Amino acid sequence: MIREQERRRSAQRNTRGRNSRVTKAKPKARRKRRRLSRAGRLVVLACTLLALALAAGAGVWLVLPVGTVSVTGQTPYPREKVLQVSGITAGDRLFGVDKKKTARLLETNLPYISSVSVSWRLPDTLVLHLVKAVPVAAVPRAGGYAVLDAAGKVLETPANLQAFPGLPTVTGPDAGPLTPGQVMTAPGKAKMASAVSLLRAIKAAGIPQVTSVDVHDSFQITFGYQNRITVLIGTSADFDEKLRFAAYMLTKQLLSSDTGTLDVSKAAQNNQAVFSPAGQ
User: Fold this and answer.
1) Which residues pair with 106 in a beta bridge?
2) How far apart are CA 209 and CA 246, in angstroms?
3) Residue 145, SS3 per DSSP
4) Does residue 123 have a cis peptide bond before it, meaning omega lies within 30 degrees of 0?
5) Which among 246, 223, 238 has a CA at the least distance from the CA of 268?
6) What is the rounded distance in angstroms from the CA atom of residue 193 to the CA atom of residue 154?
7) Is the predicted pLDDT of residue 187 greater than 90, yes or no?
8) What digits encode the pLDDT tens for the residues 79-88?
9) Phi–psi pair at 128, nearest 5 degrees
10) What CA–CA distance (Å, rounded) separates 187 from 259?
């Protein structure tokens, strides 16, 4: 009995010791959780304040007014006309300007503007950089001509070409009822692109005074030289070689009084160019 009682007392002491150790550990765990919780709240608060500061700063930038509009580049139009068409006025939101809409308005309503880039220069300047459109050819149409740039945009629709000396005419693309500022659509735009490519290649070959280009038939492409010789290119294959022969014949072999047709369509294959005088 005595031994049994001693074992019970010993077991009770061990139990109390374990409970005491567990009880003492709990406050430490609670204090640790409190410290983590306070640190987390500080982080959240700091992030919130930073976000509010950034939002406030962004809001200030977004509502900045336009103070000055700078027009750069080359254009035949006065600055006042450019500003009027753009629709931009002092006081508009600087970062609220629709760049694409502004460029479209200027390129359409002022035909001799080829392209527009819109940018900002802080603190309050809006910059409109203009690229001037250059006439490259004229397409005959009812009542006169449509003068076009390299992109196929109509620049003017004059009754004659007296104001455009040396501007070649292009047969093939259909300008139809297009008005200044409008751009050709397919398939006319594709034919115009072919004509522009040919004109550039002719210039690179050193052939001056080209008066016309005919691309209506892609297998029988021709161009006119000084309104007296028609040069038959054929297809667009081997352009450079054909034009090399044409340049040699036109500037070195033929007389300034010669008229007729110069066939270089097979020059790349047989290394020959054939001239047929007019009337033969």
Assistant:
1) none
2) 13
3) strand
4) yes
5) 238
6) 14
7) no
8) 999 999 998 8
9) -110, 110
10) 33
Name the strands in the sheet holding 144-148, side by side, starting at the edge strand that comes first in the sequence.
Answer: 154-156, 144-148, 137-141, 169-171, 210-214, 221-225, 229-234, 260-263, 274-277
Range with lowest mean pLDDT among 60-74, 124-138, 232-246: 60-74
- Residues contacting residue 27 through CB under 8 Å, at least 6 positions apart: none
Quick one: which of 222, 229, 230 has its CA closest to 259? 229
- C-alpha 179/C-alpha 238 separation (Å) is 36
Which are the contacts of 63, defined by CB distance < 8 A and separation ≥ 6?
93
Q: Which residue has the higher pLDDT, 55 or 207?
A: 207
Tens digits of per-residue pLDDT, 23-65?
444 555 455 444 546 666 666 555 555 554 444 444 444 567 8
Interatomic CA distance for residues 179 and 191, integer angstroms: 19
Question: Residue 79: which residues within 8 A CB-CB, separation 6 or more?
Answer: 71
